């Protein structure tokens, strides 16, 4: 793969309800050791979880920035309740750090001040991206399910407008969000009475079909893919097509090593084959997928047409 | 009091005429392509069929709303623009949209045609709704089926547009316009292709004990015992196991339909302008039955009489009905 | 809705007898006339079938001694009665009580509802069945009435008697 110092690695917001201590340790390691350029913080999935982590946020931001990372705060994907509306408005009012918006309520509150567009914002095409750019968007994370030709067309349009273009290249895909909490439901509770049972599943609660095939993961109100997306083999093509940022979603594996693997392959210091082998070892027992990118069923793993 | 318009589904020209004749105030429909979220085989309208259907509906004083409520992937936006141009030419009364690029195009190119914000846009707060109203002059929002009636009443006070809510039909669990479950198993996208559990990937298997399993792209979604009622083969209505749930359970929702017939007066009082009946994929028989029943109910409410709605449970998924989030937030 | 929750009778043993073969011979001329007439009256039906004009549908009215084979190809329309053991390999099979099937053809009954209640069974190519259902649903009026009408007052009387015999 060509040497590409310019392509940035980002770390997406933690989707799960990891404990405060786990988060502290996680971000301390990321700050010190991970070859990651930009880190997204904040609760995107469930507004009930946010109070657990808010107190730590200033220290985490400071820690990451000291480690040379750019920090961006991500807004909630679902905004319905008063506390969610307030959290979104408060975030949109911030001058620094940068913010990533995941709900139209955030766009409303932000007005024309600069912001990033998150993967839940459905920026599927050049017309929408142009509209958003005209309203202050500086960067767009494309929806995870987009196939390669659409990514290429969207990236070309976004670059023309001077926007950064981001694609998730690692981790479980977000497949759906709901008003109902499926973690609570699995335990015979409701969302209001959930007792934060989602904390038990650091990598999501696995669902299997009745004939015992792993299929999905439940993370509170979110449904995720069973497989981890791995687009390391496709990264070279995406760079050619204008993608500027690769997003790694935090999973319950050694994310510093995952980031290092991606960086090494992107920089050309390691071969793709070595990189893929390393990822396989790091994510033991997890299936990888790249079907969305190839316009096929998302769970599928399509052999790369031309590895280089 | 609001007008309480009745908005009815039309999957084919014959279904459209059926809905009009049964008393629909407006019908909604789409073209035979990815520009709408019911892009199902053998369903929907050619431009010629839409032209004739608009004429039929307008002749009887019924409005026609054109669903352009999917998200064009980059490089294919022209298909949505052309659909909008055709719809405007044929005189549809409103476009139902979700994508900002599509909304922006219509607002600029066809400012004379009303824009309705599709449930696929998932605007569930006053701020989100106002974003679309202020930027694209949206005249009506179709609310996601996740809000309680008191929450709808509060939203109504803070937005400058009309509210449409679903009152009957398929009970979508996931936030609309944010669901890639179908694409994960089949390679066809709900947002970009307008499909949900496409029939081409669905297979039913009969077993010797009388049970029937439904599969999507080879994944078993559910297995119905000989005496059990069935549902759609959608991933969000399937049965699965979890580490502490060794017996298969409905992890998301059981096969069930929304039926708000008992809540209509409360919805009117909360400021809902229009009632939407789901089911463009259903038959004329369904359209006739559901539309006439709700026509009668809405007329009763308008006249200040108590509404007495016919029993529609036979038409519901799993032959079960719910008032979902509208009744209690415990549903969440 | 069809009355009763009794499960569909097992049809396999029904369709192999001499009676089955005899019945097929008797009804075949009627079927041919019916399908030709429907095709002529409702040409738009075929475009909704799309790629499934060439699909072999087996329509299986569980209580009748024979099944029906439909291939809705406008160039070479097939609609024939077949003994169950002589039915072609089906692209899609639709099973249910005869009256339910008749009502589905006429959109007097909702296919999804009949499926939810388990009165209707679909196996094989689901898309083919969905297309056929949508194509038939776009036909105005009653195909059953039209068919009965082809046979004059006697035909209509038979249809009326049939409907009375099956309380719905």
TrEMBL record, chain A:
It holds the Pfam family Peptidase_U32. [4Fe-4S] cluster binds at residues 46, 181, 194, 198. The keyword Transit peptide does not apply. Its cofactor is [4Fe-4S] cluster. InterPro entries: Peptidase_U32, RNA/ubiquinone_mod_enzymes, UbiV. Pathway: Cofactor biosynthesis; ubiquinone biosynthesis. It comes from the Bacteria. Keywords: 4Fe-4S, Iron, Iron-sulfur, Metal-binding, Ubiquinone biosynthesis. The keyword Metal-binding applies. Forms a heterodimer with UbiU. Required for O(2)-independent ubiquinone (coenzyme Q) biosynthesis. Together with UbiU, is essential for the C6-hydroxylation reaction in the oxygen-independent ubiquinone biosynthesis pathway. PANTHER family: PEPTIDASE U32 FAMILY, UBIQUINONE BIOSYNTHESIS PROTEIN UBIV. HAMAP family: UbiV. Belongs to the peptidase U32 family. UbiV subfamily. This is Ubiquinone biosynthesis protein UbiV. It comes from Thioclava sediminum. The lineage of its organism: Bacteria, Pseudomonadati, Pseudomonadota, Alphaproteobacteria, Rhodobacterales. The gene is ubiV.
Automatic annotation (TrEMBL), chain B:
Forms a heterodimer with UbiV. Required for O(2)-independent ubiquinone (coenzyme Q) biosynthesis. Together with UbiV, is essential for the C6-hydroxylation reaction in the oxygen-independent ubiquinone biosynthesis pathway. This is Ubiquinone biosynthesis protein UbiU. Belongs to the peptidase U32 family. UbiU subfamily. The keyword Ribonucleoprotein does not apply. It comes from the Bacteria. GO terms for biological process: proteolysis. Keywords: Hydrolase, Protease, Ubiquinone biosynthesis. The keyword Cell inner membrane does not apply. GO terms for molecular function: peptidase activity. The gene is ubiU. It comes from Thioclava sediminum. It holds the Pfam family Peptidase_U32. Pathway: Cofactor biosynthesis; ubiquinone biosynthesis.
């Amino acid at each position: 793969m060509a040497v590409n110092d310019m392509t940035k690695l980002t770390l997406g917001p933690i989707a799960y309800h990891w404990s405060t201590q786990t988060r502290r340790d996680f971000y301390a390691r990321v700050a010190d050791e991970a070859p990651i350029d930009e880190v997204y913080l904040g609760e995107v999935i469930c507004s009930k979880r946010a109070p657990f982590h808010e107190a730590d946020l200033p220290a985490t931001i400071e820690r990451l920035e000291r480690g040379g990372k750019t920090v961006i705060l991500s807004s909630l994907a679902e905004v319905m309740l008063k506390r969610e509306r307030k959290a979104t408005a408060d975030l949109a009012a911030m001058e620094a750090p940068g913010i990533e918006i995941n709900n139209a309520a955030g766009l409303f509150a932000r007005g024309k001040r600069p912001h990033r567009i998150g993967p839940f914002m459905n920026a599927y095409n050049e017309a929408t991206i142009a509209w958003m750019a005209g309203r202050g968007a500086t960067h767009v994370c494309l929806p995870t399910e987009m196939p390669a030709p659409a990514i290429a067309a969207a990236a070309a349009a976004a670059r023309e407008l001077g926007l950064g273009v981001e694609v998730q290249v690692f981790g479980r895909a977000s497949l759906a969000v709901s008003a109902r909490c499926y973690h609570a439901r699995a335990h015979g509770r409701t969302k209001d009475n959930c007792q934060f049972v989602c904390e038990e599943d650091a990598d999501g609660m696995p669902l299997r079909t009745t004939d015992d095939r792993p299929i999905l993961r439940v993370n509170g109100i979110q449904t995720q893919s069973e497989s981890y997306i791995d687009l390391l083999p496709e990264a070279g093509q995406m760079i050619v097509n204008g993608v500027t940022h690769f997003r790694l979603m935090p999973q319950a594996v050694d994310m510093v090593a995952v980031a290092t693997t991606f960086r090494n392959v992107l920089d050309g210091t390691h071969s793709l084959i070595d990189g893929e082998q390393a990822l396989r070892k790091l994510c033991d027992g997890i299936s990888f997928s790249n079907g969305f990118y190839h316009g096929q069923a998302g769970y599928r793993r399509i052999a790369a047409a031309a590895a280089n | 009091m609001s007008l309480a318009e009745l908005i009815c589904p039309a999957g084919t020209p014959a279904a459209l005429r059926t809905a009009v004749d049964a008393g629909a105030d407006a019908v909604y429909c789409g073209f035979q392509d990815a520009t709408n979220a019911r892009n199902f085989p053998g369903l929907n309208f050619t431009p010629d069929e839409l032209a004739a259907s608009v004429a039929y509906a307008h002749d009887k004083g019924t409005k026609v709303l054109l669903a352009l409520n999917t998200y064009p992937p980059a490089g294919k936006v022209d298909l949505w623009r052309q659909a909008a141009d055709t719809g405007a030419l044929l005189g549809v009364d409103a476009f139902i949209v979700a994508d900002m690029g599509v909304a922006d195009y219509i607002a600029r190119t066809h400012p004379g045609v009303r824009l309705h914000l599709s449930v696929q846009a998932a605007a569930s707060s006053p701020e989100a709704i106002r974003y679309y109203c202020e930027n694209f002059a949206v005249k009506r929002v179709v609310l996601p089926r996740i809000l309680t009636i008191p929450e709808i009443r509060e939203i109504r006070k803070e937005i400058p547009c009309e509210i449409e809510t679903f009152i009957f039909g398929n009970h979508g669990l996931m936030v609309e316009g944010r669901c890639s479950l179908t694409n994960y198993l089949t390679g066809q996208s709900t947002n970009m292709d307008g499909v949900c559990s496409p029939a081409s990937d669905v297979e039913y298997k009969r077993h010797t004990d009388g049970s029937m399993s439904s599969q999507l792209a080879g994944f078993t979604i559910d297995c119905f015992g000989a005496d059990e009622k069935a549902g759609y083969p959608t991933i969000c209505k399937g049965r699965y196991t979890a580490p502490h749930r060794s017996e298969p359970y409905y992890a998301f929702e059981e096969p069930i339909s929304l039926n708000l017939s008992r809540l209509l007066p409360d919805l009117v009082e909360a400021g809902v302008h229009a009632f939407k009946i789901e089911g463009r994929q259903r038959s004329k028989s369904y359209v006739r039955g559901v539309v006439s029943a709700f026509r009668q109910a809405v007329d009763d409410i308008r006249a200040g009489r108590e509404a007495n709605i016919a029993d529609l449970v036979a038409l519901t998924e799993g032959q079960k009905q719910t008032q979902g989030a509208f009744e209690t937030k415990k549903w969440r | 809705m069809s009355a009763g929750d009794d499960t569909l009778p097992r049809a396999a043993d029904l369709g192999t007898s001499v009676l089955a073969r005899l019945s097929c011979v008797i009804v075949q001329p009627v079927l041919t006339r019916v399908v030709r007439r429907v095709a002529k009256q409702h040409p738009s039906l075929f475009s909704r079938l799309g790629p499934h004009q060439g699909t072999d549908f087996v329509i299986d009215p569980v209580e009748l001694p024979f099944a029906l084979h439909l291939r809705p190809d406008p160039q070479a329309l097939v609609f024939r009665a077949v003994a169950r053991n002589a039915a072609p390999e089906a692209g899609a099979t639709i099973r249910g009580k005869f009256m339910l099937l008749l009502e589905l053809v006429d959109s007097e009954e909702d296919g999804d509802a009949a499926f939810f209640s388990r009165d209707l069974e679909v196996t094989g190519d689901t898309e083919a069945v969905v297309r056929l259902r949508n194509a038939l649903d776009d036909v105005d009026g009653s195909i059953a009435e039209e068919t009965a009408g082809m046979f004059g007052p006697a035909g209509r009387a038979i249809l009326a008697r049939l409907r009375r015999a099956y309380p719905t």
